[in-house]
Amino acid sequence: MVINGNPEGRFMPFKIKEETLDSLFACYETVGQKLNWSSVFTLPVWLKSWWEIFGKDYQLCLHSVWLDEELIGIAPLMRRGSEACLIGSPDVCDYLDFITIPGKEKEFLQGLLPELKMLGIERLELSAQRPDAVMFKGYFIGTADFGCVCRGQFALEDQSFELKLYSTWEDYLAGFAKKERHEIRRKLRRLKNEVKDYRYRVIGESGEVEDFTAYFLDLFKQNPEKDNFLTEKMERFFHMLIGNMARADLARFGLLEIDGSVAAAVLYFDYRDRIYLYNSGYIADYGSLSVGLLSKIFCIRDSIERGRPVFDFLKGQEVYKSRFGGTAIPIYKVQLTIS
């Protein structure tokens, strides 16, 4: 006998509540503090920014799951017909996930999946899933009856790279092979020798970040591949996202300035002691000085000096990520049919 997804028949008093993006903010500030908002891409400020620009083709399907009057998780879903997916898209959201209390992933899915079936959802399409995502902990690893028939499969979708940072810059350099260490120092020495003056600085005050965004997007456009990506809608998204994240004290720009002018810049997010390197751009005239790569090196050094333990290069197969010490993290796409 199965009651509420419990194979022993013991009643599990799940309560499913419909939420809005606004109520999600209130939840985050109060009872939601016990939940694992695992990355910047799961935060209410990020979800709402994405939804405002791209959400019109979907119906919001946002629910919280409660057990014994305790909030154990949130499903930030959107649906189109009988199919649902997590709010966001893998082209601008490197990781997507449910939000749960650590250790309650299985119970969360036991409460959620029968509810989705009742709502007429027959399939979940979950992109951008890290190996530590809720679906892997609660479904693929957990063994439980979910109160409905579920069939899941997953496939490799992409890779991200992350770097465990050393306590000092010199320790970081010492971890490289001799050839790579020499190459980094050679680039730094060349910059020092060939320009009158340079500096790397970080801006994080919300007004400064918002003021710099337009210039950063102009840098972004100097790369032909990125220019094609930056449609009018995407540009509106970046303006909204960066502004909202800056006001939440999460967005930073790292600027490499040469002779008083910005030659390269990185956009990153600083959340829970993890640096998320989101995007970058540089002036083509400085390409011979490798300012694009150096801006990332300076960002890593600054992160070490600020005591951050993890530097996340995020998704993409760029060679520099492994050369700079990043470890590959597989990113999966999960399909779950519910009947």
Helical proportion, percent range: 25-40%
Distance between the amino and carboxyl termini: 18 Å
Number of DSSP strand runs: 13
The number of helices is 11
Mean pLDDT: 93
Tell me what the CATH architecture of the largest domain is: 3-Layer(aba) Sandwich
Radius of gyration: 22 Å
Shape: elongated
Along the chain, the helix and strand elements come as: EHHEEEEHEHEHHEHHHEEEHEHE
CATH superfamily of the largest domain: Gcn5-related N-acetyltransferase (GNAT)
CATH class of the largest domain: Alpha Beta
What does the model show?
The protein is α+β, with helices and mostly antiparallel strands. The chain has two domains: 14-159 and 331-338, Aminopeptidase (3-Layer(aba) Sandwich), CATH 3.40.630; 166-308, Gcn5-related N-acetyltransferase (GNAT) (Aminopeptidase, 3-Layer(aba) Sandwich). The protein has helices spanning 21-29, 44-54, 105-118, 134-140, 169-174, 178-194, 206-221, 224-229, 232-247, 291-305, 319-323, and strands spanning 14-18, 59-67, 70-80, 83-86, 99-100, 123-129, 150-164, 198-203, 251-258, 261-271, 274-282, 310-315, 327-338. Strands 1, 2, 3, 4, 5, 6, 7, 8, 9, 10, 11, 12 and 13 form a 13-stranded mixed beta sheet that branches. α2 packs antiparallel against α9. The chain is elongated, with a radius of gyration of 22 Å.
